[in-house]
Amino acid sequence: MELLAQERDRLLRSTTRVVGIVCALVSVVGVATSLAVPVLPLIAGFACIAAMVGALVAFGTNGSTWWTAVTVAGGLGAVTVLTAAVAPDDRGVIASALVPLAGGGLASLLMAQRGHRVGLVLAAGAGVVSLVLMSWASGTVLSAPVSGVLLGWVLIAVIAVWISRSIPRVARRIYSIGTAHRAERQASETEAQRRQGARLLHDTVLATLTLLAHSGVGVSEHAMREQAAEDARLLRHLRLGATPQPQQSGDYSLTRTEESPLGQTLESVKQRFGRMGLEVAWHGTGQVLLPKNVLDAFLLALGECLENVRRHAGVPEAHVTIVHDEAMVRAMVTDSGVGFELDTVSAERLGFKESVVNRLREVGGDARLFSAPGAGTTVVLEAPR
Amino acid sequence: MSGVPEDTMSRGLPGEQTAPRTRREARERYRGTERRQARGLPSTSTGARSLRQAAQPGASLGAGHLGLGAAVLTGLEALGGIVFFLVHWDDYTNPWMTATAWALFVVAASCVLATVLTYGERLTGVAFGLICVVLACIVTLDFIGIWPEHDVGHFATASMAAGFALLPITTLRPAREVIAAIVALGLAFVVYAAVSTSLTTETLPGIVTMLAVTVVPPSVALFVVHRFRQLVQRELDRVLVQSNVGAPQFAVGMLASDELARLDLAAEKLLDAVANGSDPLPLSDASASVAASLATELRLHLIEGRRETWLYHAITESDNLGRSVAVTDPSALAGHLTPAQRDGLLQALWQMVGDGRTQQPGVPVVSVTLGPVGSDGHPVTDDTMDVPVVIESRGVPRRRLGPAAWTALQRIGPYTDSVREGVLHVTAHCVVNRHPQI
User: Fold this and answer.
1) B265 and A147 in contact by Cβ < 8 A?
2) Which of A130, A223, B36, B174 is deepest in the core (most CB within 10 A)?
3) pLDDT digits (tens, 9 = 90+) for A274-327
4) ipTM entry
5) In this structure, are residues A289 and A262 in contact, taking their beta carbons and an 8 Å threshold?
């Protein structure tokens, strides 16, 4: 609100400046075209107007009461000098030329006096004095210049009140928009975290999309469709607000559990690779409870290893042996495929470091790789329980 | 992968977005969607919609109320004009023409007011054209009525009110249309004055005043409305950005989360199409490349590196701050700040940016550096650390910074400030929790 009040005052001050200067200049043109004022008073009057314009420029930047006083003095001085110096016959003409200055230039000060009591009194006083001067110059209270000046003051007062009232109104609307926006941001942040948290789900979706990116070649059409249907169903659940876990039974846990059983989820990995043509044989433990983030990392790493076997080993079968003790759970992924020279094929090329080692290290585990050409490959994955 | 370039994905799936039907729609879509999205807000969010509305030329946020005020001014001026005309009735050779002009003015103004109040604060181009035609009729009638006087400066009333009638329209129509109307009206006055009145030193001052009273008010109104819009847009920007103060230590931002939802939906649709056979296997090249780019984008959105601090989001989302503030925060220390400290930093930035203009183009108006922690005089303990927040401001000069800026800085932490070569340097000691709870 503080900033908005500053902005409002700046708006009113710059409006004062624009209105004041334009009106003063219009009066200069009017007085000059009348050719009624003798040279010396004309110079004095224009000097007063110049002082007024300068004061308005300064007022526009800082709004000080001193500049209000200088503007008032300059404006009233100009009106007095110019009307007093001409012959009584020409006074009416000069008065009508000075209407913009008195009714707009001086009145504009009224707009930016919020909180400046002295300035407000000065501006109002200038209004009264200019009306008196105009009545005297035009000879009657009912003349066009007097009514013009009066109208100018009334209009400017209305503008000042209206602008100051419009701003709190619009501020209230802006703040209610802000409240709605804050709620939306929180909701979207929670939503993003929920979606990013569904890593296991996204991993199978990514694997399927990657297969589809190669037009689904190399996988049986039926298996591809089945996998796509399952992934689409999981995504739909995610969209509708659940956090599904890929599981074997097609029945998804709709609540976020702190610990998930390893056995069931291993079965879904096996099925997934089974569809893609890699038979995975399990050995060892069936049920291990792992914290959710560890389980995710462990399964993602395991999936990556099996994907490497499927792509590079050239054999249709892989063995996974799972053992666990009090502190750790270990998985050994072995295949009897082509193998490779550890030094010639860098681990980075297989995405091994990024997708396997780093994922496990994030949760306090590790991974090691053993291989030789023609002797198959073995990966040992470790994760804490 | 071949054929379709990958970045087509960022504009939605092929066929998902229909082509714009009109040029206007295309322009609005470009302005609304692309530009606002680049700023980090999804185009359907309340914030983005409000920003779009505030930038529209018609009666946008708050301008409607301003327009009502302008209508009051028009009414007052018309009342003044009518009273003046009636008082001087006997001076007119043929007052009935002018009286007709005034009657037309009153009827037309009432109609426009009733329409606007009934159908909401908007004015179509056709309606504006109609209003201009009516105003032209009023001016013509008045001009004919005062012809025998041969003194436009002292007798024109209804035609002068035509200028004031443009006041409320400045809030409803784009500025260039109103400028055209003002110019036309001014020219009509100049030509008529030259033809009807002998230009002597007696009549010229009156004519100049008359012309000014007709042309200046709507021009000033255009200026005020323009500044008011700027003010509203700036405040809206500030309020929207303020929502980042309560964000968690790291956030993905509204746009990224929107994108993730979109990608998930696109993947779901594609997988569904594969599953029910509407996209036959093996997939066509086009569908395969869609799958490839979906996978790439999903992967990008899922890796942790996409998370940024609230300060990054605040600066990139804001039109005003984004242009003029540069942030250096390599260790993402901004995420540790408490909401009060964040608020202080943001307020101080708003105050220092000012109107965002500097002498040197290309140099950011304000640069903020957070860290490094553990440097001289900035100790780190087990629980807390003293983050040096260094602000270099080339925007508002030090003497022009109000008390609001300094209290805002105080909220970040104890600070020292100095001015070197016109650049204000502020170093604040921002003591934060090493393990923030937000």
Assistant:
1) no
2) A130
3) 777 788 887 776 566 777 777 777 887 888 888 888 877 888 888 888 877 778
4) 0.78
5) yes
Contact (CB, 8 A) for B251 and B308: yes
Which of helix, strand or coil describes residue B305?
A: helix
Read off the amino acid at residue A112: A
DSSP structural state of residue A101: I
Q: What is the pLDDT of residues A345-383, one digit of tens each?
A: 655 555 677 677 877 887 888 888 888 777 788 888 888
Q: Rg of chain A's alpha carbons, rounded to an integer?
A: 42
Nearest to A228 among B257, B264, B271 (CB): B271
Contact A170/B220, CB-based, under 8 Å? no
Residue in B87, B231, B406 to test binding to A, most A beta-carbons within 10 Å: B231
8 Å CB contact of B298 and A206: yes
If you measure CA to CA, which chain A residue comes closest to B347?
A3
Is A173 in Cβ contact with B268 (below 8 Å)?
Answer: no
Q: Examine the pLDDT at B390 and tell me if it is beyond 60.
A: yes
Find where tokens 């920003």 sit: B51
User: Are the beta carbons of B171 and B224 closer than 8 angstroms?
Assistant: no
Strand order in the sheet with A279-284: A279-284, A317-324, A328-335, A377-384, A366-371
- pLDDT confidence of residue A257: 39
pTM value > 0.80? no
Was domain B324-433 assigned CATH 3.30.565? yes
Among residues A83, A75, A26, A31, the alpha carbon closest in space to that of A53 is found at A75
Residue among A205, A228, A239 minimizing CB distance to B274: A228
What whole-number distance in Å separates Cα of residue B353 and Cα of residue B368?
Answer: 12
Three-state secondary structure call for residue A139:
coil
- Answer whether B87 sits within 8 Å of A142, measured CB to CB: yes
Task: Give the A window 56-75 contacts with B, CB below 8 Å.
Answer: none
Taking the CA atoms of B320, B321, B326 and B332 in sequence, report the sign of the dihedral they define.
negative
**Long-range pairs for A339-344 at CB < 8 Å and ≥24 separation?**
A339/A313, A339/A371, A339/A372, A339/A373, A339/A374, A339/A375, A339/A376, A339/A377, A340/A312, A340/A371, A340/A372, A340/A373, A340/A377, A341/A371, A341/A372, A341/A373, A342/A369, A342/A371, A342/A372
Q: Are B390 and B368 in contact (CB under 8 A)?
A: yes
Sketch the domain layout of chain A as residue ranges: 2-173, 198-384
Residue keyed to tokens 């608020």: B343
Check residue A153 and give its pLDDT.
92
Question: Which residues of chain B make contact with A216, given a CB cutoff of 8 A?
Answer: 274, 281-283
Structure tokens at B400: 């022009």
Put simply, whether A147 touches B (Cβ < 8 Å) is: yes
Residue B46 tokens read as 């309340």
With beta carbons under 8 A apart, name residues in chain B contacting A195.
257, 260-261, 264
pLDDT at B26 over 80: no
What residues does each domain of chain B span? 63-234, 324-433
CATH topology for the A198-384 domain: Heat Shock Protein 90 (3.30.565)
In the block, residue with structure tokens 């504006």: B128
Range list of β-strands (E), A158-287: 259-261, 279-284
